[in-house]
Amino acid sequence: MLELAPTEASVVLCAAAEAVDAVAGLGDVLRVAPDEAMLVGPPGTAPELVEAAADLVIGLDGDAVVLEATDGWTIWNLRGPEARDAFTYLSALELPEDGFVQGDVAGVPVKVRADGERLRLLVPSMWGTHLRERILSDCVHLGVMERPGPVPWVVEPPAGRQGA
Q1: How far apart are CA 17 and CA 102, in angstroms?
Q2: Which domains does the chain show, CATH number per domain?
Q3: N or C terminus of the chain with fewer C-beta within 10 Å?
């Protein structure tokens, strides 16, 4: 079964030419540019993520900017054995087995966090409904089922480390 569900998460943007790598370990770090990263963590953790990220990067780069951006993003969780097949109907992007890619998905800019049979699609909020509708229409033949409630963003521990 292919499941589509909204995802609740906290999103923090970090722009720091010399210090973006410093936020590794605070959340799921999506490197969106050489000097910019998105930190994504469990819902409700944005204030703590902003504070922790600011403490790390501002000390290394006085021009760094760290800001909470949760409301600017809609996140869709596409999960199941057919998730990667479904993605091919939406985009020409090549998905990593476990990792991050960004680009055109269903005609809009999307950031994709892939891990196994789960794809988390981060889209600017103004395009959230459009992406949902395109997933449902372009992948109808795959039997997409909508989950009635949101799922939380879960930060997976780095490979080889248990807990957290």
Answers
A1: 20
A2: 7-70 (3.30.70), 73-148 (3.30.1360.120)
A3: C
**C-alpha to C-alpha distance for 2 and 139, rounded to whole angstroms:** 9
Task: Give residue for tokens 């000097």.
Answer: 35
Torsion of CA 37, 98, 4, 149, to 10 degrees: -60
d(CA 28, CA 13): 12
CB 154 within 8 A of CB 116: no
Q: Provide, for the chain, the percentages of residues in helix, strand and coil under a 3-state DSSP scheme, each rounded to the nearest 5.
A: 25, 40, 35
Please tell me whether the overall predicted TM-score, pTM, comes out greater than 0.85 for this model: yes
**Closest by CA position to 100, among listed 49, 2, 24, 163:** 24
Provide mean pLDDT across the span 32-40: 94
